């Protein structure tokens, strides 16, 4: 097998030969001594060769630019993928924080419910205490009235006794 790396037009081109029987490869270096081969080339063939070389060079340049463009796009894509990965990581972190905050909110809501129940119980106790106080106040008022009535009754009894005494004197 013969391998000519850069084609026939490159000066100093290397040619490698790999024998089919498995023996060691052989390598020769060729140098261009002259372009004169003794053959005469027609002008049309030379023009065609020049045109093909130009086309090859243009296509090589276009391929080079496309490869550069592809490399730039790959770098941009890598950068975007890295940004996406960072955002996904941040999203997962925020999701974890949100879960812990939801747990805190749930605990606080339970605390609020318990405090509301305690408040209702305290309101009921306060209402009962007010009723008891009103009852005690009425009891105190009734005692005051009873005391006043007892005083009035005692005064009336004294008057009645005096009236009876006076009446007993009038009959006599």
Topology, element by element:
Elements: E1 2-4, E2 14-17, E3 26-29, H1 43-171
Verbal overview:
This protein has two domains: 1-39, no CATH class; 40-167. The protein is 75% helix and 6% strand. The chain has one helix spanning 43-171, and strands at residues 2-4, 14-17, 26-29. It has a three-stranded antiparallel β-sheet, with no helix packed on it. A hairpin with an 8-residue loop joins strand 2 and strand 3. The model has no long low-confidence stretch (mean pLDDT 83). One of its GO terms (molecular function) is carbohydrate binding.
The largest beta-sheet arranges its strands as 1-2-3
Work out the radius of gyration: 60 Å
Q: Which geometry do the CA atoms define?
A: rod-shaped
* Total discrete domains: 2
Q: From N to C, what is the helix and strand string?
A: EEEH
Distance between the ends = 175 Å
Helix content: over 70%
Number of helix segments?
1
Region (Disordered): 126-149
Biased composition (Basic and acidic residues): 126-144
Organism: Ceratobasidium theobromae
GO molecular function: carbohydrate binding
């Amino acid at each position: 097998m013969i391998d000519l790396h850069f084609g026939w037009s490159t000066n100093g081109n290397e040619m490698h030969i790999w024998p089919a029987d498995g023996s060691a490869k052989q390598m020769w270096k060729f140098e261009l001594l002259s372009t004169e081969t003794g053959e005469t080339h027609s002008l049309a063939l030379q023009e065609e060769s020049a045109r093909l070389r130009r086309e090859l060079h243009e296509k090589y340049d276009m391929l080079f630019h496309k490869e550069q463009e592809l490399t730039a796009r790959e770098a941009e894509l890598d950068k975007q993928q890295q940004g996406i990965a960072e955002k996904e990581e941040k999203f997962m972190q925020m999701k974890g924080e949100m879960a812990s905050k939801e747990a805190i909110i749930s605990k606080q809501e339970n605390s609020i419910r318990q405090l509301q129940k305690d408040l209702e119980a305290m309101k009921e106790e306060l209402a009962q205490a007010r009723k008891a106080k009103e009852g005690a106040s009425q009891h105190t008022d009734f005692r005051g009235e009873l005391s006043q009535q007892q005083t009035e009754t005692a005064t009336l009894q004294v008057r009645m006794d005096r009236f009876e005494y006076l009446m007993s004197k009038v009959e006599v």
